[in-house]
Specification:
This protein is an all-alpha fold. It contains 5 helices and no strands. Bound molecules: fe (ii) ion.
Length: 155
């Protein structure tokens, strides 16, 4: 059972909600202890990679997070592994299925430890900085109500 702590937030509500949802799905599977839940779990996780990863990558783009390319590659790797497991299937009682359930567990562990708690956390100080700094606005001249004057040396 993984307990979400506030220190695990990156500071953007939508992204943190997705990450909390990930932990909830994993906990539900691990607490149930039923390998028959593997397929439903893998599909829920996959849906999260489709929506949640996209939201996260958008946030990184908007805040100009410098590690966004590497981060996007990590997302793609997680999504590809998950997709391969789902394609392999979780039905039946063969050895391949047991291996895929074990691989799903490994993937979930690596996802949390290697990505959520490490790579995602790299965004935290960047997001804090990006949201604290006002976006530069073009300087506008305050209207004075006086007509514009033209200084020239006509002569
Ligand atoms: Fe991420």
């Amino acid at each position: 059972m993984i307990i979400w702590r506030d220190t695990m937030n990156v500071g953007a509500a939508t992204v943190d909600n997705d990450r909390r949802e990930l932990i909830a799905i994993i906990n539900e599977f691990e607490n149930g202890g039923d390998p028959d839940l593997a397929e439903a779990t893998a599909k829920k996780l996959y849906a999260l990679t489709q929506e949640g990863f996209r939201r996260e990558e958008k946030l990184q783009e908007e805040s100009r997070f410098p590690g966004s390319n590497r981060h996007r590659n990590e997302h793609a790797l997680i999504r590809d592994k998950l997709e391969a497991l789902i394609r392999g299937g979780f039905a039946g009682q063969d050895r391949g299925r047991a291996e895929r359930v074990a691989q799903l567990r490994d993937l979930m562990r690596d996802w949390v430890i290697g990505h959520v708690l490490r790579s995602d956390m790299e965004m935290k100080p960047h997001i804090a900085f990006a949201t604290a700094s006002p976006s530069p606005r073009p300087r506008t001249r305050r209207a004075t109500g006086r007509p514009a004057t033209i200084n020239s040396r006509a002569g």
